[in-house]
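Case study: VanZ like protein.
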Amino acid sequence: MKTLFKYYGPAILWALFIFVMCSIHLGKIAESPMFFPGFDKLVHCGFFFVLVVFYANGLIRQLSTLYVPYKGIILFTVIAIAYGGAIELLQLLIFTWRSGEWNDLFADGVGAAMGAFSVLVTFSALKYVKK
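Here is what the predicted structure looks like once written out:
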């Protein structure tokens, strides 16, 4: 358990942050003119982008290498999308002050895929850095 928090602590804390932010009652804040249409989708995308990047960071630190296993990234991308789906189900069924939407789940998936893609591109580019 200690090893889990040592390497994946930021990812776990970020997942808890996502859960809290997706479950609180926003009230009139969501209707503020400060937020543009689609701001919610952008936030969902950003949340899951950061979640996958934090997981990849933990995986790299745990393996002590600059190689990123594709299976690990793909697996956690799928897990992150499932986590987003679970949050949307909770919003639909339990957190009645929130609404579970397919568009939010799509934004979660896009953010997770963007995170995985950015990690893979970054580490592919590191192979070609002059030493």
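For the exam, be able to explain this: The two ends are 37 Å apart (CA to CA).
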